[in-house]
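ARCHIVE CARD
CATEGORY: sequence design from structure
SOURCE FIELD: tokenized fold
FIELD CONTENT:
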């Protein structure tokens, strides 16, 4: 049973747009973004505040049959070990995004 998806693959495997419509899918992703922001705001006093380093968090989100997102758990320092080829691709993409954000070439 595969539970981790690259967003593009998730949208192909489960055609949310055809079932719920583009507007509802857009609302769902806005709710997920809001869920992430509010979760981090709620833990703000516990989050490391050092300009020389950063922390990576993994949030597990479940979508119910009505496309409502539910936060299952927050992982501090989530595992970067890949269980499948798809998981490896997802984590490589994540690292690529992190390095892009950090812009290490300017250092």
């Amino acid at each position: 049973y595969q539970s981790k998806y690259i967003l593009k693959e998730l949208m192909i495997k489960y055609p949310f747009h055809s079932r719920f419509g583009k507007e509802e899918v857009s609302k769902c992703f806005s709710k997920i973004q809001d869920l992430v922001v509010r979760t981090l705001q709620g833990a703000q006093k516990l989050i490391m505040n050092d300009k020389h380093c950063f922390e990576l968090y993994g949030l597990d989100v479940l979508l119910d049959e009505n496309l409502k997102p539910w936060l299952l758990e927050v992982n501090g320092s989530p595992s970067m070990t890949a269980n499948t080829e798809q998981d490896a691709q997802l984590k490589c993409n994540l690292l690529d995004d992190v390095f892009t954000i950090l812009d290490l070439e300017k250092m």
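CARD ANNOTATION: The two ends are 42 Å apart (CA to CA). The CA atoms of residues 53 and 102 lie 10 Å apart.
SHELF: design records, drawer C
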